[in-house]
Amino acid sequence: MSAIGVFDSGVGGLTVARELISQLPNENIVYFGDTARVPYGIKSPETVIRFSIENILFLLKQDVKLICVACNTASSFALPVIKNHFRVPIVGVISPGVREAVYATQNKRIGVIGTKGTIKSRTYETEIKQLDSQVKVTAVSCPLFVPFVEEGWLKGEVVLSVAKTYLKPLKDAQVDTVILGCTHYPLLKSVIQEVLGKGVILIDSAKQVAFEVKRILSSEDLLNRGKGGKNKFYVSDNPEWFSSLAERFIGKRLINVKKVDLT
Ligand code: DGL
């Protein structure tokens, strides 16, 4: 089964898997969520790079033809270092979102929100500037957003008040486009939009990532010719927790999530 391999620190990468399944229904997908070591967003670059390499080695054993790093923190820290060291193409979530944002902005002021690690790495900023050096980037981390989403707090007074505090620098900078630079944040889209105002464009890179995967598979003649892809889900810990949260991210309950030991 030649498949698309997808990994994330946990459950959030399912927002990307969902888009891959919808745009590439004939592809097999092998998803790995590193639930034993989540969260990546507060870990050091060295640790995230090591975890990412281990995740990739696991996916390569599952006969994958392309790997999608469906985690912003891993894409920020690990992708620039490891990208060209494996025998299959590796696609991250940063560049597709950056391209869309640079294309969308009218006033050349882009906001980026993500985990502490993603923001500290300045990867988004670097890639935006590479595409258009005139763009002013305002980047802030929103560490409480991940637990909010995992606890199912997607709206309400508390979330709104925290979002107002986090997003104030973006409002002050008058950004017209904001990259949701974390797998979990698309689930908080309505609160974020409410705080920033209707005029601000929110970029959720999952769609662009799936386009990019499709483009690479097609240009390398790797698209699956069969009908109806199969999906497999692996985690490094607590498959029950993963399954129960999965519905929120992928829109359906996942049964048969398997636990694997990477060591
Ligand atoms: N998947 C991570 C990301 O997109 C968020 C969760 C974590 O911190 O591991 O950055």
Description:
The chain is of the alpha/beta class and 263 residues long. It has 12 helices and 10 strands. It has helices at residues 14-23, 45-60, 72-77, 79-82, 94-104, 116-121, 123-131, 145-150, 157-172, 189-196, 206-219, 239-250; strands spanning 3-8, 28-33, 64-69, 90-91, 109-114, 136-141, 177-181, 201-203, 231-235, 258-259. The protein has a 6-stranded parallel beta sheet, with helices on both faces. The chain has a 4-stranded parallel beta sheet with strand order 6-5-7-8, sandwiched between helices. Helix 1 crosses helix 11 (206-219) and helix 9 crosses helix 10 (189-196). The model has no long low-confidence stretch (mean pLDDT 96). Bound molecules: D-glutamic acid. D-glutamic acid binds next to helix 3.
Question: How are the SSEs ordered, and which strands pair?
Answer:
Layout: E1 3-8, H1 14-23, E2 28-33, H2 45-60, E3 64-69, H3 72-77, H4 79-82, E4 90-91, H5 94-104, E5 109-114, H6 116-121, H7 123-131, E6 136-141, H8 145-150, H9 157-172, E7 177-181, H10 189-196, E8 201-203, H11 206-219, E9 231-235, H12 239-250, E10 258-259
Parallel strand pairs: 1-2, 1-3, 2-9, 3-4, 5-6, 5-7, 7-8, 9-10
